[in-house]
Design a protein that fits this description.
heterotrimer; A mainly alpha (355); B alpha/beta (517); C mainly alpha (310); A: 355 residues; mainly alpha; ABC transporter involved in vitamin B12 uptake, BtuC; two-stranded antiparallel ribbon; 14 helices; 2 strands; 68% helix; B: 517 residues; alpha/beta; seven-stranded mixed beta sheet; six-stranded mixed beta sheet; 16 helices; 31% helix; globular
């Protein structure tokens, strides 16, 4: 026993900020080592993965486009995670929100009402909330662990999407491909800048960040959820309703994931297919952790993980490596973050040798 | 007397030092124990006694210091090694596994092959020899606290210890059980076993121990023969001044009933818990009522029924200021004027990682800290500052984290937070457990002041001395039922001690006392 | 026709349940020591990919299974270091392991996706295989199926009849008390996690070598998560893991039931495929309703970090 961890008297604020930076650094270094092991030039790999995506304005707008659903999902998840409510099913809630919003669009293919788009946003939120309500109810009523129930529902949601695009919602003029009709122009989110794909969902995302910040830091309800997350018995002692905490935590995650789903199908994709989500629901969990469960942190970490997605596509195109490399980087990042977080509450100390 | 005739000490410690980030737990401690000696280690909570014992037992490694065992220099690096040397330890918070049997628990502490049948025979043998009856096949969670302590002791005795360490053994026992324990210890000592007896209870030390080493703030302030000292002189060595005297005063007469418990019967949802049976109690304004009892007889369940952390089917079973509250949660009961100081400070009474200001919000938010659901942090901080000032809480200011405070200061903060809400009814569980003498006396004085101002106070405690010091009326809880009430001045420690075993007149649990204490 | 059908359904159920038994027992041991490792999906995935690669290049299935075991153990070390030594939140670490493991397997396995393996040869147990219906269903199986039964017996014996097993259970219940008595809590937990990783790796190997001899991204399809649910369903008791695994296995081959029974159900295939997941939810609800039951059987320190006071 030569080195050991000793608890600090107060958590180190410096390490709170440094830790994500250290994690990112370690991820970059490991990434370059990975490129080397795969027989590619590590510096070229670094350039293509991390610098290519942002070399022009179009690239930046693509980054913001990818960051938006991550931001939305992550801020919803963070409300729950802070309260120890583990919503692992954001991916499924994303899909159900997409289906609900898409359903509205497909049901009114010729509508010119200005309420169509807001209606779709609402439908997306409701769809995600409904899917999240199931694990919430099972937890409050039956004490069933929400990690497993919400996750199982992800697989079910994926199967529902598959069934709909292969069956009832399949585009009759789509040459039998598993996809729905393209949404009409009025059912698509308006683009922010001509020629780029980033749309108003970005503003919805930033709005969500702001509301979350106020809720978490200034509202009594947010305080109650913070207590529930840190010391369950204290929450009970204070009389804070743990049922309300669970419902709020799950529904917030569901609603925002549902809106994210809507933003994807009413945005760049424009229809519902089997592949509307490249795992946003899971990546959003990493965004939430790396962002320290705070809105400001989530803003930056969603940009970072969006970069990992776009970079993965670049690497697939230019270096013939599978785009699943993004997932490898994501996983590494989370592990490195969890590892370097230890220094917030502990410091390393040399043990004095016994005489 | 020459060196050849001076007996070798069984254990000799020189210059022991152990430093933690926030405190120096042991600072140059010397200790000498002779064979067959019952040696007390005396000090108030936080003096460093437990740290010293853990170092002797190999649980922690000291930073400096020398240990000699029977004259030979040793490095004790693990409890296993300590056991091999012949050192046994009975922990204050037992190191037992609830879902396993007695025999399995004992087996875990013994090296060697796994022979539960043979072990059970040896357990019965030892338990009979030393007067500590126990059935090896029983599951630990079904045992009373006194029985669990017996398991801990038997576990040590099976290894033929030459030094037995007991850490605050009597805090969980009735006065009668304490006497039984002392018999066992005297028998052991007469067989040559040395005993290290850690305690802060001066009268027990006088009764039992041959020598005493007194610790204060990590340093040794003296050694003595307790038989030749008085509690006053011992106290002065322990805390550096005289024990504070509290003027008890008189309770008010005929105040309104603030808490009425009427026929409370509640089955516990916890498989290891205790059912409450037909509890009746009244607490009036201007008096302090105390509930005595050995741990594990329903105190937790009763407290949760009163605080609202467990809601009841019968809303009338608990009434506060005349209002039936059985179905209300703690927040709603607080709006009626109840305040509550729980047994666990960190994790229940306060959130460890939150600041003192935020911890104020846990229960005192009604005092002008909320507006339309949003928090007014300024008001909360001012409340915290006031609490810190009035209750002499030593801390780094209202922004410091709850877990950075010492036990005594955090308890003062929590008690202060509740008192500052001007409660009509204040309920406290173990109000001075683990708290240094100065803070304990401050808290008790505050409770008496509160009572004099008209609040109804209910104290549940396992420390009889404390209850006799501050309570006007006493009641005993055993196996989930309550005894009749007695005015404090009309009873004594002996009678209450007997009642703590469930044996009061017309008791329904009298015949079933084997597992109470 | 009827008996043959029954036999083949039983056979398929056993095959489908076997990876769940193996991974489930591994997770059970881990959780009994007080550690909640949610990364089973990731460990099974890398175990599968490693086993497939070795099987494809060496044609030695025994080596392949060993490779799967090793890969599962190696990746579980990441979790162990993060959760046990660095004391990070166990739920977050498990999620990280799942995401990383599945991603790594997808990445490494891309070039292997179009390859196929020769089917493994089943081993028939003499005499027993002659029993009508049960014989061919149970005793003409692959070697790992028999391994799963032996594993069950071994884990049960270990936990309830051996001293090291008793120590492990004690660690899971009250690590502070175990530490006070002198047991190396962190080391014991490391071993428990590694065992869980090894078993998850073997389960993954079974999937690609014996169950469907190919590799495709995402083929574990949630079986790792179902194994975790299985441990809860079994209230942490080994024999019930077997029962639950075969129940879930039955759900997984529901499609085969329906087609084979000849009933003309116009049910979309996706509905049938969702049965195992819905069954998992149902089973979790049924078991969790009795809070007292959970409290009595679950390891008391499950999921909480342990900081030794040295």
């Amino acid at each position: 026993m030569w080195l050991k961890f000793e608890q600090r008297t107060e958590p180190s604020p410096l390490m709170s900020y440094l830790s994500p930076a250290i994690a990112v650094g370690l991820m970059l270094v490991s990434g370059m080592a990975l490129f080397y092991v795969l027989g590619r030039n590590p510096f070229a790999g670094f350039k293509i993965f991390f610098l290519n995506p942002v070399k022009d304005w179009y690239g930046v707008s693509e980054l913001l486009l990818k960051a938006t659903p991550l931001m939305l999902c992550a801020v919803g998840l963070s409300v729950g995670f802070r309260a120890n409510v583990w919503n692992i099913g954001a991916e499924g809630q994303f899909l159900m929100g997409a289906l609900a919003a898409g359903g509205v669009a497909l049901h009114f293919p010729d509508s010119t009402s200005p309420f169509l788009l807001p209606g779709m946003v609402l439908a997306g939120a409701l769809g995600g909330m409904a899917w999240a309500a199931i694990p919430a109810w099972l937890r409050t009523r039956f004490n069933a662990n929400e990690i497993l129930t919400s996750l199982m529902l992800v697989y079910v949601a994926q199967l529902v999407v598959s069934w709909l695009v292969h069956g009832p919602w399949k585009d009759p003029e789509g040459f039998n491909f598993p996809q729905t009709q393209m949404f009409q122009a009025k059912a698509l989110l308006p683009v922010l800048v001509e020629g780029n794909r980033v749309n108003v969902a970005l503003f919805i995302g930033m709005g969500a960040l702001l509301i979350a910040w106020v809720f978490m830091n200034r509202s009594f309800l947010g305080f109650q959820m913070k207590v529930a997350g840190q010391a369950e018995n204290a929450g009970r002692y204070a009389g804070f309703s743990s049922k309300r905490t669970i419902w709020l935590g799950m529904l917030a995650g569901g609603a925002l994931a549902g809106i994210a789903g809507m933003s994807e199908v009413a945005g760049p994709v424009g229809q519902i297919t089997e592949h509307i989500s490249p795992g946003y629901g899971f990546a959003a969990m990493i965004v939430a952790f790396v962002g320290r469960l705070t809105p400001i942190g989530i803003f930056f970490s969603s940009l970072l993980l969006a970069l990992l997605y776009v970079g993965g596509e670049q690497v697939q195109q230019h270096m013939q490596l599978p785009s699943a490399i993004s997932n490898v980087f994501q996983g590494m990042l989370l592990f490195f973050l969890l590892a370097s977080d230890v220094f917030i509450n502990f410091r390393l100390r040399r043990l004095a040798r016994r005489q | 007397m020459n060196a050849a005739t001076t007996p070798t000490p069984r254990l000799a410690i020189k210059g022991m030092r152990k430093v933690y980030p926030a405190v120096i737990a042991n600072d140059g401690v010397d200790l000498t124990v002779m064979p067959g000696e019952i040696h007390a280690v005396v000090g108030e909570n936080g003096a460093g006694k437990s740290t010293l014992m853990k170092a002797i037992y190999g649980v922690i490694r000291p930073d400096e210091g020398e240990i000699r065992w029977e004259g030979e220099h040793v490095n004790i690096t693990s409890p296993g090694q300590a056991r091999e040397l012949g050192i046994g330890m009975v922990f204050q918070h037992f190191s037992l596994f609830e879902t396993l049997t007695v025999a399995q628990n004992v087996a875990l502490a013994l090296p060697g092959k796994f022979d539960l049948a043979g072990l059970s025979r040896r357990i019965i043998e030892v338990s009979e020899r030393y007067g500590l009856p126990i059935d090896p096949r029983r599951l630990v969670h079904a045992l009373s606290v006194g029985e669990r302590q017996r398991v801990e002791i038997i576990r040590c005795l099976l290894q033929n210890p030459r030094l037995l360490i007991l850490d605050e053994p009597t805090s969980v026992l009735t006065p009668q059980a304490v006497r039984k324990l002392f018999e066992t210890l005297r028998k052991l000592a007469s067989e040559g076993c040395s005993i290290l007896y850690i305690s802060h209870k001066l009268d027990e030390i006088q009764e039992l121990c041959h020598t005493a080493t007194i610790l204060r703030a990590g340093k040794v302030t003296g050694t003595c023969s307790p038989a030749q000292e008085t509690p006053k002189t011992l106290a002065r060595m322990m805390i550096g001044e005289d024990l504070p005297v509290i003027h008890h005063g008189e309770p008010a007469e005929g105040g309104e009933v603030r808490l009425r418990i009427d026929g409370l019967t509640q089955a516990t949802g916890d498989p290891f818990g205790v059912n409450l049976r037909d509890i009746h109690l009244e607490v009036r304004s201007g008096e302090i009522v105390g509930i005595a009892g050995v741990s594990g007889n329903g105190q937790q369940e009763l407290l949760k029924a009163i605080s609202g952390e467990e809601t009841l089917h019968d809303r009338r079973a608990v009434q506060m200021c005349g209002v039936p509250v059985g179905r209300l949660n703690p927040a709603r009961r607080r709006s009626l004027g109840m305040c509550f100081v729980p047994e666990e400070r960190l994790g229940r009474g306060a959130v460890p990682r939150l600041s003192l200001t935020e911890n104020i919000l846990l229960t005192a938010y009604r005092k002008g800290m909320l507006v339309s659901g949003m928090i007014r942090f300024g008001a909360a901080r001012r409340f915290a500052e006031e609490c810190i000032r009035r209750f002499d809480v030593k801390c780094g200011g209202p922004g410091s984290e709850a877990k950075s405070l010492s036990g005594g200061n955090l308890q003062k903060f929590i008690v202060g937070r509740e008192i500052m809400q001007d409660p009509k009814l204040l309920v406290l569980a173990q109000p001075t457990w683990g708290v240094d003498v100065g803070a304990a006396s401050f808290i008790r004085r505050s409770l008496l002041d509160l009572r004099n101002a008209g609040t109804a106070v209910l104290v549940i405690s396992e420390e009889l001395d404390e209850l006799f010091e501050i309570c006007d009326r006493l009641v005993v809880i055993a196996k989930g039922t309550l005894s009749p009430t007695k005015v404090t001045s009309e009873t004594g420690v002996e009678e209450i001690g007997i009642w703590m075993s469930g044996m009061w007149p017309d008791s329904v649990v009298a015949g079933d006392t084997t597992h109470v204490a | 026709m009827g008996l043959e059908l029954l036999t083949s359904i039983l056979f398929a159920t056993v095959m489908a349940g076997t990876p769940l038994i193996i991974a489930g027992l591994g997770e059970l041991v881990t959780e009994k020591a007080g550690v909640l490792n949610l990364g089973v999906e990731g460990m099974m995935s890398v175990g599968a990919v490693a086993a497939f690669a070795v099987a494809f290049f060496t044609h030695n299935y025994f080596l392949a299974i060993l490779a799967g075991m090793g890969a599962g153990m190696a990746i579980s070390m990441l979790f162990a270091v993060a959760a046990l030594t660095l004391m990070a939140n166990q739920v977050a670490c498990g999620l990280a392991l799942s995401i990383f493991g599945v991603g790594l397997a997808a990445f490494v396995g891309k070039p292997l996706e179009s390859m196929s393996l020769k089917a493994g040869t089943p081993i028939a147990i003499p005499l027993l295989e002659k029993i009508p219906v049960l014989g061919p269903a149970l005793f003409q199986q692959q070697s790992l199926v028999y391994f799963s039964w032996v594993l069950l017996a071994a884990v049960a014996w270990f936990l309830y009849r051996s001293k090291p097993g008793l120590v492990l259970r004690a660690v899971g219940e009250a690590p502070v008390a175990a530490h006070a008595i002198g047991y190396p809590v962190v080391r014991i937990r490391y071993l428990a996690v590694l065992f869980g990783g090894a078993m998850a790796g073997v389960a993954g190997a079974f999937m690609v070598v014996f169950y469907t001899p190919l590799w495709v991204e995402g083929m574990i399809a949630g079986r790792g998560w179902i194994s975790i649910a299985l441990v809860v369903f079994a209230t942490w008791r080994p024999l019930r893991v077997l029962v639950g695994a075969y129940l879930f296995g039955g759900c997984m081959i529901a499609q085969m039931f329906v087609q084979a029974s000849g009933v003309e159900l116009n049910v979309p295939s996706q509905w049938l495929s969702s049965l195992p997941y819905l069954a998992t939810i149902l089973v979790l609800v049924l078991i969790s309703r009795n809070r007292s039951n959970i409290r009595l059987n679950s390891p008391a320190s499950l999921g909480q970090p342990f900081l030794p006071d040295v």
